[in-house]
Structure formats: C-alpha cells, structure tokens
Amino acid sequence: MSEQNLLFSLEEENTENQGPVYCLGRTFANDKERKAFFREELRKKLSELRSIEGFPIGNDEDIINLSDPPYYTVCPNPWINDFIEQWEAEKTGLQKKGLRKAEFEVTEPYSSDVSEGKNNPIYSAHAYHTKVPHPAIMRYILHYTQPGDIVFDGFCGSGMTGVAANKCGNDNEVASLGEKNAMVGVRHAICSDLAPIATQIAAGYNLKFSFNEFKNRAESILNQVDNELGWMFETEIRGHKAKVNCTIWSDVFICPNCGKEIAWWGAVDVEKQDIRDNFLCPFCGTDCSKKNMEKAWDTYYDTLLGKTVTVIKKVPVRVEYTLSSRRGASGVGEYDMKLLSKIDALDISNLYATPLPKGEKTSPVMRTNGTISSHMLYSKRSFIYLSRVLELAWDNVLLRDWFTSVCQSTSLMNKFRFTGTGITSGTIFLPSLCREYNPGNTLRSKLRDFSETDYAERGNSVISLLSSTSLATIKDSSIDYVFVDPPFGANIMYSELSTIWESWLRVKTNTKTEAIINKFQDKALFDYQSLMNRSFKEFYRILKAGKWLTIEFSNTSSSVWNSIQNSLQGVGFVVANVSALDKKQGSFNAVNSATAVKQDLVITCFKPTDKLVEKLETSLDTALNVWDFTEELLMHLPVHIQRESSTTAVIERSPKILYDRLIAYYVQHNYPVPMNASEFQAGLREHFVERDGMFFTVDQVIEYEDKKSQTPDFQPLSLFIGSEADGIQWLKTHLSEGEKTYAEILPHWMQDMVATKKGDEVPELMKILEENFIKNENGAWRNPDPEKEADLEIARTKKLLSQFTAYVEMASRPQGRIREARLEALRAGFKDCYKKRDFATIMMVGNKIPESLLTEDDVLLQYYDIASMHV
Predict the structure, then answer these.
(1) What are the sequence ranges of the domains in the chain?
(2) What beta strand segments (E) does 619-757 contain?
(3) Coil, strand, or helix at residue 526?
(4) Dihedrals phi, psi of 592, to nearest 5 degrees
(5) pLDDT digits (tens, 9 = 90+) for 518-530
(6) CATH number belonging to the domain at 12-88+111-209+454-489+526-606, selected among 3.50.20.20, 3.40.50.150, 3.10.129.10, 3.40.50.300
(7) What is the DSSP string of 596-627?
(8) H or E segment and range at residue 289
(9) For residues 721-758, b (16+ Cβ closer than 10 Å) or e, as one string?
C-alpha cells in the first residue's frame, strides 16, 4: 500500500497557506515551517508534560504527529499561558476601539430557560456522546463576557464552547439570537478534555483551515484509495460489474430441531418491510426464535492479533448496488462469496488495532459476540479501506476529523431497519442484522457536511488534552468565564464508547482521573464526587474573582445533583441560579422513553469578589460580614425570571436558600456562623426589602415591582424539597394540575430541591413516585384516588418497615453506625416499635443514627424521649 508520493504532490499544490505566518511572537516562512518548529519544541517538553495528571496513553511520536502545536496538542498544552498573555494584551486595543469596556461587571446570572435545536451543519458534521448546540452556549457567553474575553471549557467534548466563543464575532448569528445588549465580537476559548478523540473533534471545529485545500486533498485521497481498493466493493449483476453501496449481514443460529445453520435474515419479510420475532426453519419447518435457538460460532486465525479467535458467525444476505447510475438490490451470489473469500485470505498483520477494554459497555459485546479487538467491529474489507484512508490523511487535523466522523457509521454497529439506520447510542453493540456501508461513499457524503463547518471566525481557540483535576498549564485568576458540560455519574461511559475512535488515533484516554461511576474502574459515587470536587477547585483557581461559572447538568440522579452543588459550594463558588436548557431533538432514549429527561438543567455560580473575601478573612465583626455576604449574593441573583407569559418567583431569594448559601460558604471556609436561622431571617427584614416571600436590595425591589406590574400572571414560590415528606407534598401539588410523565416532572423537581437534614437519605424521585402515586398506561403519573390512598399508604409502610429492619440490623452490630438513613423509614419504624412497646429498639437505632437527624426531627425525638423513659 504505497503512498505513491500523494502527500508530496498535494503539499506542492498547497498555495493558500504560503507567505509569512505569525505565531506567539515568531515569524515563519509558511504554516508548514510553523508546525515543524513547534512540534520539535513539543518533543523537548514531553518528558515534563508526561508528569501532569491525565497524560494520554500512547507513544511520543503519535502524540506529536497528531498535534498541531501550539494551537492544538494531544497532551497538556504548554503554550496556553502564552496565548493568555497575548489575548490580555489585545484587550487594550479593543477598548481603544470602543469594542469593550474598561469596567465590565455582570451582576445577574443568565436566568432565562434556553431552547436550541441541533439541526445545524456544525452540530451534525461529527458525532460525539453529548453536545450542547453552539447557539445555546453563545447566549451564555454573550451575557457573561465582552469581546476579547477568555472562555474556558474543561470538559470540552466536541468543542462547541470554542465554536460559540468564535461565533460571538458573527454579526448575523448574534443578531439571530435576539439577546438584548449583546456585544458582538470574538471571544477566545481554551478547550480541554481528557479524551484524545474529544480534542481531535474540537480541533476540527475550531482551528483555522483552508477548506478548499481540505476538499482537494480529501477527494484525491478517495480517488487513490478507490483505484487501489475499490475492487473490494464490487458485485456482479447480470454479467456486469456494479458498485456495492451496502451489504446486509446476518447472525447465524442453529435450528433446535434439525441442527442446521440458519440466518436470522429468515425473520425478515422484505415485501411487507417487517422483521418478525420468529420464523420457520427452511430445512425442517420448526418455529424458530432467538429464545429457542443457539448461536453459531466461527473460529479462525486472526492475522492482526496473531492468534485464533471465536466469534458469532455472520453471513452476507443482501447487496444494495449502483449499476449505470441506477440503484438496485439483490441476494448474495457466487461472485460475492468468492470476492469475500479472497479478502478473508489477505494478511492484515501490518495494520493497527487495539484490544477492547473491559467495561460497562464493552464487556457485553465481548461476551455475546466474541469481539475482543476494535478491528472486529468492522468487516475486513471496510477495515482495510479505512486503514488506507487514514494512512494518507494522518498528518492533517481536519482530514483526520473527517475520517473519524465516519468511524461509527461504517462499522457493523449499524442496525438494519426498513426505516432509516444508525447505531444504538450510548453502547457498543453488534446487532443480529447489520448494514455494512461502502466507506468510500460515506466519506464522500461527509465532505459536504464538513465544507459547511467553515466559518470566518475560526482560529480563536486553543485546544489541549488536560485533566480538569490538574490544570497545571493554566495560571491563577486568568479566565473570564467558564462553561462546562461535565460527565455526570454513570450517565455515559465516555472512555469505553470512545474506543471505536481512539483505536484509530492510536492514543487512548488515561482513565485514572475520568470522573465517572464505573465498577470496572472501581469508582463509586464517592470517587466521582472527589474527582469533580478537584475539578471545581481548579476552575475556582483559574477563574478571575467576581466572574461566573455555568454548568450544564444532564442526569436524573438526585444524589449526583446534590454532590455537584455541594462540591461547587465546597470549593468557594456561590450558586446563584438553576434554569433549564432544552436541546430539542433528543437521543433515541430521550425521544422514545417516558423516563428519559428531555431538558438539561443549568447551574450558574459566581466566584466572590476579592473585596468580599478580604473582608471575611480580616474582619472580626462576623455578624456584620453576614450582611456583606448576603448583599453580594443578592446582587448576583436574578431579579425577575420571565417564562413565556408569566413571572416566576426566584427560589434563590427565599430566606431558607439564602441561609443555606450562607452556611455552606461559611462552613466550607471555616468561618464561625454567628447566628441561627431565625436570627438570620430577622436580620434579612432589617437590612433588605421583602416582596412575595423573597428579599431584595432597595434598588432591586424597584426593578422587581416594575417588571412584575408588566407581567400580571405571577407564579409564587413553590414548595421546597428538603425531605421525603416535602417531596410527596410537592408532587401532590404538582400533579394536581394534571397528569405528568417522569421526564416532565424531573427538571422542576431538581430545581426545587434544597439541602436536606444531615444524615437524611431522600429516595430518588422514581422511588417516591412508585410508592405514593399512580402510573397510567401512557406512562404519566397522577395523584391516587382518595378511596385508594389508604391502600397505597399500607403498601408504602411495608416497604418503609423493611428498610427500617435493615437499619436495626446495622445498629445491632458492635461497631455499627448509620451515617445516612431514610427519615421516613425511621419515622415508620419508630412508630411501629412504639405500638409494640419495643422501646429498646428505638433507643438502639436512635443512638446509632446521626445526632442531628434525631434532634432536628420532632417526630423521631418524641418517640426517642418516650422510649428513654421506659428503658
């Protein structure tokens, strides 16, 4: 597979990037010279960079050759601070031109709910596990920054934050968002991620390229590979050669009666466009289904792995082709089988693949299909074809991005359907019926998508592979705004699902600091919390004082939700607002499942100003400091939230939330808390103005009254969810408006959650719904009928007592301590023990639960006091 001097000839044709190139104070004859210089500099720095947490798994030469320094490095980028220094110097010039203000302060969070569709060329060109459409991020950047500011995304994924920062300089796109007082002008972005594939995609979306050169080189590569390997995708139709567009492959099973091998394709009725659950064996007529058949297995010597492997047997069953510009389909003939046999005999030991890692999403395919290596996710001919394309595209970032954009769609993970096709997102899965697309066709169609990702503002982002737990190459207080969409618990197994891309790049994610809940990585919720806490500490360190952090949250777990908020407050951030972000077109699960959440939540926090921090650290009058802190908090909260035609109360302005924020900040910084909740509420009324259960500064209340008068439909503060009992009452009120699905309830539920009592373990929303409410056939929940509510209560009490029994068992152990408990289960258990006059059990459990949980709950304390008089 010789390159036939292709790259040399293409480089000779490249004239668009000639001429002097300026980069970080240096001048180069052309871009090729710039790249060569900085790659050599990167090589010198690698040994030092390798000690930074999150350094990827791969050899030095691959890391260097994948990088386009100093703009993009597949390792910690050592030039980030140089760019920050350059961008900061440019701000003075922008101020002189009137493009930015010398004094710029954002006092209110962006509190409007955001809804943006995904159907734009930039979003669609390259798939990734999760993405936020760049217009949605633009709204936040335009609100929190001004032209020339530096935006950071430490979980950048596909780099949409960088695209958004760049496109803030596009007059038409900014105008289309309709954001008032938006200052048009490019913002600079630093995009980093732990995953090599994420940085690769981000570079493809953000760095400056010549798209004409890209298109010419890509077409030349495809022409050459078609000349060399196009024969692999040919078929014979009525004696004429035709081009194969797609081949359908079927798993093979064994008939339970006659023992003959039969393809699952027998379940397909092409005329009726139907795939049945069972069909008759063509040999003996037995009714066959996956439930009563065994898989057929194929054992062969794999020349790439250098060993014998056993995989589930697949056979080609149908060919879709083009002959003389006309499309058609036929069964698999003798020509096809001879061609595939010829390809099977090819030695591919010189090609590259990686073993699949053991994990949540990879182990099932390894166990059920025998697939143990990345190349086994492809047909052999597709793997050979793609390997050759990558060989010719290797040294160019955009060409590699174009290549990786088809790595999923050209694999055997494409499920055969009569209506559309595609892989099942969020997993690595080889279906029983799959489509093998001609990779040349797929790559050609992607050229159009990539040509539409060109935009004039490219080139204002820097890409780095960094673990957010250690942003060692970024200096303190240097970032103007942080927007992140981090991993949330066990939501998505990023590194495992990235295997199909990173196996081609030859550089893999170092999973040691991957923030995830994953039993194969031996990471539980505590480990995830610890890693996120370390990441937030770094975000706090690099963010300038008084500036803002926005986090998109897309998880259904209240425990993860609480851990995120606690971690933010634990490192010094102050949570100011929680709003919704609707990405409209959801994933397959979000579209089809009643339990999938179609809206993400957005948490907005700020880093306190230096003035406040200094006052809190040096002043002896802690009571006075409380009102300094509260005033700064009130100044950073939205005055008014407009949702459609109504005004919604700001939950963060309620006395309970204000006090919770105060306590969280003081405790985490080891400041003494000088007053209790009742004293704080009395002080609020003395220092600030109350309206509708919320508190404002004098200036804010005028604005609030004015805006409220313009929107008469006012929605008051909802119930807070600080305990299971609160949650049940909240749901009863919420469902009194009508039936709602889990997906409709959850975003509002999580927005109204507040800190629980220490030690109280509040169940997940789904469990509370299942125990207390009625689910209809359409998947919507409703309040129970009053006549049947008693029956529900009996069933719920049984479950609570079962949980209490587990607590009794824990408490009976010599060293048994109950660090967290479900408050409602304790109440039900204490009540049951009281009825049985079992005071000893009340005392035993009461002595083993957190003291605050016992003493702060009137019901538990009442039973405990009574029991103590009888024991």
Answers:
(1) 12-88+111-209+454-489+526-606, 229-444, 610-782, 789-868
(2) 641-643, 646-648, 689-691, 694-696, 714-715, 740-741
(3) helix
(4) -105, -10
(5) 888 898 888 888 8
(6) 3.40.50.150
(7) S--EEEEEEEEPPPHHHHHHHHH-S-HHHHHH
(8) strand 287-289
(9) bbbbebbbebbeebbeeeebbbbbbbbbbbbbbbbbee
Strand 188-193 relative to strand 297-302: parallel, antiparallel, unpaired? unpaired
Global pTM value = 0.82
Q: Can you give the three-state secondary structure of 14-35, one letter per residue? A: CCCCCCCEEECCEEECCHHHHH
What is the pLDDT, as a whole number, of residue 240? Answer: 93
Alpha helices in 187-295 (DSSP H): 196-206, 211-229
Peptide bond into 716 cis (omega under 30): no
Rg (C-alpha) for the chain, rounded Å, is 31
Residue 547 dihedral angles phi and psi, to the nearest 5°? -95, 175
Rounded average pLDDT over 218-247? 96
Q: Strands, E, within 426-493: which ranges?
A: 433-437, 461-465, 479-484
Q: How far apart are CA 440 and CA 445, in angstroms?
A: 9
C-alpha to C-alpha distance for 176 and 167, rounded to whole angstroms: 12
Residue showing tokens 């871009």: 31
CA angle 151–153–154, rounded 5-degree value: 140
Sheet of 714-715: strand order equals 641-643, 646-648, 714-715
Neighbours of 531 (CB within 10 A): 22
Residue 215's identity, in one-letter code, is: K
DSSP 3-state of 516: coil
User: What is the distance between the alpha carbons of residues 779 and 593, in angstroms, rounded to a whole number?
Assistant: 9
Rounded to the nearest 5 percent, the helix, strand and coil shares of the chain are 45, 20, 40
404-433: b or e for each residue (b if 16 or more CB lie within 10 Å)? bbbbbbbbbbbbbeeeeeebebbebbbbbb
Distance from C-alpha of 810 to C-alpha of 172, rounded to nearest angstrom? 64
- Between 194 and 611, the more confident residue is 194
H or E, element range at 662: helix 655-668
Q: Which long-range contacts (CB under 8 A, 24 or more apart) does 449-454 make?
A: 449/121, 449/124, 449/125, 449/405, 450/125, 450/211, 450/214, 450/398, 450/401, 450/402, 450/405, 451/211, 451/215, 452/121, 452/122, 452/125, 453/121, 453/122, 453/125, 453/204, 453/205, 454/209, 454/211
Q: Is 549 helix (H, G, I), strand (E, B) or coil?
A: strand
> Which DSSP helix (H) or strand (E) runs through 404?
helix 397-404
> Which of 68, 163, 119 shows the shortest CA–CA distance to 449?
119
Q: Are 159 and 191 in contact (CB under 8 A)?
A: yes
Residue 372 CA to residue 436 CA, distance in Å, equals 19
Q: Scanning the structure block, which residue is given the tokens 């900014």?
A: 174
Q: CA 839, CA 387: separation in Å to the nearest integer?
A: 73
pLDDT of residue 115: 65
- Cα dist. 315→331, 383, 639, 857 in Å? 12, 17, 65, 66
Cα 14 to chain center, whole Å? 38
Query: What angle, 0 to 180 degrees and rounded to 10, lies between the N-to-C axes of helices 196-206 and 160-167?
Result: 20
3-state DSSP call for residue 645?
A: coil
Q: What percent of the chain has pLDDT over 70?
A: 91
Q: What is the pLDDT of residues 364-418, one digit of tens each?
A: 777 778 888 999 999 999 999 999 999 999 999 999 999 999 999 999 999 998 8
268-269 and 641-643 strand pairing: unpaired
Q: Which of 552, 557, 544 is nearest to 579 (CA)?
A: 552
Long-range pairs for 770-775: beta carbons < 8 A, 24 or more residues apart: 771/795, 771/796, 771/799, 772/728, 772/731, 772/796, 773/731, 773/735
Chain-centroid distance, C-alpha 511: 16
* Residue 261 DSSP SS3: strand
